Amino acid sequence: MNIAPRINELLPAEIRDLLFLIGALADREDREVFLVGGMVRDIIMGRGTVDVDVVVNGDGPSFAAALATLTGGSIVLHDRFGTSVLILPDKRRVDVATARTETYSAAAALPDVSFTVIDYDLERRDFSVNAIAVALASGEFGEILDPFYGQADIAAGVIRVLHDGSFVDDPTRIWRAARFEQRFHFHIDQTTEKLLRAAVRGDILNQVSGTRIRNEVKALFEEREPSATVGRLQDFGVWEALVPGLHVGAEAVRIVGAIASTGETLSVWLKPDWRVFNAYLMGLAVDGSAEAARGLTQRLGLSQHSRRAVIGAVSGRRQVLSDLDKKSKASTVHRALASYSDAALVFFYAAGKEGVRGNIERFLVNRQIKSLISGRDLTRLGYRPSAIFTSVLEDVRAAQLDGVVTTVTEARSLAQHLMDSRKSNG
Ligand code: CTP
User: Which of 94, 120, 125 to mutate to test the pocket of ligand 1 (most atoms within 8 A of CB)?
Assistant: First the structure.
């Protein structure tokens, strides 16, 4: 079969032209070059796609270098795997790999690599739907190589591994299987599911590094609808195998499903660097104990800062959700929320009912309002900087939010009163 017409129909002109250019270069260098991976799968499914992934029989890096010269792009090299990443002038990324086989010296280890021809390269891949290659050399442009019947599996909507050891070799495929299944509304084939469950029971996840797991969990949350995948992974026992006590129940699935739209709703008020990933992790951990939340953040190797944000929000959620589920004074809302990260606010909003949501919106709007006075005003009033400053300024801000003081003069006189009474008490 030849999918050149589909390539013409589905891909944007610049990507199509890039594939032609790669094909022409393959001719000139007398090399076999193939398009592989998700782009092939997506074209066959009739979906548009942008990630260009090519495999070269022979010396991949030298082919990538020639392509960089032709396109004016630049190259990042990964020698061990014979893979180059080419960045084109328009910032588009092209992965150029050397056809290779992989053997695993230990379960869940990174593979030992040796270079080979395309058929073996396809054999090392995760699922049949991702193990299809398309020739790019001009005489055969668009010809499909499909040794594992990936096209038939695409037509039937099936996710199938290529061999029994696939999940043990690379346990990150457990996440990938669930992700592709839910993204495409496919189903995981029966034998594949048995192998997946056996791998989870076999404790293989303990051998995978935090970074690799974190990358998979991130990729999961970058899906358009991550919640069903999260639920499916719970059904497979993945979360509890990863972190003892991390039970991901219906509430967690619901919250994960609401995070993306919540982030959009609140986006104008949130700090530009807020971390949606942390909000998702809070959602994921909502049904478990604070201990499980701690375990999750540790297992994923989060920074100290993110760890604290996630654990704090999960531990504090009950209090926040019950305290804020009613109309409250602005200062009360401020006190309840001020210490939390923006990711936590998104999490509380996604988890909470109408009352909570209204209060969070009010908090975010009020946060933009500048305080009537600052520490400098207190020094101008003749006070020496001390620990009392913070509490006094907070109380003045609370009075401002509640409309008790409305002018700078009123704020100053309240501050003066508070400073004097606290100084005499202290
Ligand atoms: N691959 C694999 N095993 C993995 C990761 C990747 O076999 N653990 C192979 C698959 O052939 C996959 C290709 O590498 O198609 C590219 O991987 P990646 O870019 O991560 O995924 P895509 O399949 O392109 O999917 P997406 O649409 O999510 O980018």
Answer: 125
Residue 420: CA atoms inside 13 Å, Cβ hemisphere, count?
8
CATH of 243-367, one of 2.60.40.10, 1.10.3090.10, 3.20.20.140, 1.20.120.10: 1.10.3090.10
CA distances for 365 relative to 174, 268, 330, angstroms: 42, 10, 11
Sign, Cα dihedral of 406, 407, 410, 415: positive
The residues facing 93 across adjacent strands are 87
The CATH number of 4-156 is 3.30.460.10
Spell out the domain ranges in the chain. 4-156, 243-367, 375-425
Q: In this structure, which residue's CA is closest to atom 4 in ligand 1?
A: 126
Q: Is 37 in the pocket of ligand 1 (CB under 6 A)?
A: yes
Distance 38 CA to ligand 1 centre (A): 6
CA 75 – CA 71 distance, rounded (Å)? 11
Q: Give the bridge partners for 135, in sequence order.
A: 34
CA 130 to ligand 1 centroid distance, Å: 7
Handedness of CA 283, 284, 286, 290 (dihedral sign): negative
**Which residues, 6 or more positions from 267, have their beta carbon under 8 angstroms from its beta carbon?**
none
Read off the amino acid at residue 14: E
- For the chain, 426 residues long, give each residue's pLDDT as a single digit of tens: 899 999 999 999 999 999 999 999 999 988 899 999 999 999 999 987 878 999 998 888 899 999 999 999 999 877 677 789 999 998 889 999 988 766 667 777 776 655 568 888 899 999 999 999 999 998 899 999 999 999 999 999 999 999 999 999 999 999 999 999 999 999 999 999 999 999 999 989 999 999 999 999 999 999 999 999 999 999 999 999 999 999 999 999 999 999 999 999 999 999 999 999 999 999 999 988 888 999 999 999 999 999 999 999 999 999 999 999 888 899 999 999 999 999 999 999 999 999 999 999 999 999 999 999 999 999 998 988 888 899 999 999 999 999 999 999 999 999 999 998 887 665
